[in-house]
């Protein structure tokens, strides 16, 4: 079923293997966090239109979570999919029970991801999404403190055997992405989701190689650093009170970020690529450059953003020489999600 959203015929949305699980996903995936309203006011009409447009264009991976608007994002996705005949892969998440975020080294999995809690939450995800099986269920965060006794993942794998989950995953904590490598190596997870962008390049150290060796799918998030790497913000930009980025870029963070984004733009200009690649294209192509990456999920709030983001897939890969230069923008800046 088509919904009338037209894109240039030259746009070819490429697909990549999702690890060794026999599935292929669009290299640009749909990030549905904004559907919940945490990125400022968002109408369901715009959300529905954006998702229909993305699916019509060939996107077949949607990433969401119950925390995105207290289930609002999941409900909008369920509404859209109920009206279509295609079957994209929908990835959602189970958050830990209330406690520190990210989990501290002293958190016990029994308090954050007990078997009873996991089963109840997965049942809620099934109901919210209007499905009998979750395509990809990801624990929304993790701590290496649980690696020696990863019982929560054993519970999810039993639910996979029961037919309630197709694939098991973990959304790696941004401050310690390599904490999930042992889980990959022992086959406890089918897919990992990690932050990887021009500023945060730590997964390139070990995680990507471990993913290829273990056949684990890799979903990249925050490829645009919450919009900063598009180059559209000025140093004095202020986000709305309802936009989580107001805290993410609090204090002098936006000013510092903009200076670094300009340095990236200068590198791209030196290679003579400014007219062909927008900064957002460069950021997405960089995130897609490791062969271990299956898909990069990008937030898309309207049809225009869908068109812009999927067009990146048709562009040639960045020159290897430029990729090498862009590695210099790796930035050890701590966990900005905790606020200023």
Automatic annotation (TrEMBL):
The keyword Cytoplasm does not apply. Keywords: Oxidoreductase. Residues 27-320 form the NADP-dependent oxidoreductase domain. Pfam families: Aldo_ket_red. The keyword Amino-acid biosynthesis does not apply. Its EC number is 1.1.1.-. Signal peptide: none annotated. It comes from the Bacteria. GO terms for molecular function: oxidoreductase activity. It is an enzyme of class 1 (oxidoreductase). This is General stress protein 69. It comes from Roseimaritima multifibrata. The lineage of its organism: Bacteria, Pseudomonadati, Planctomycetota, Planctomycetia, Pirellulales.
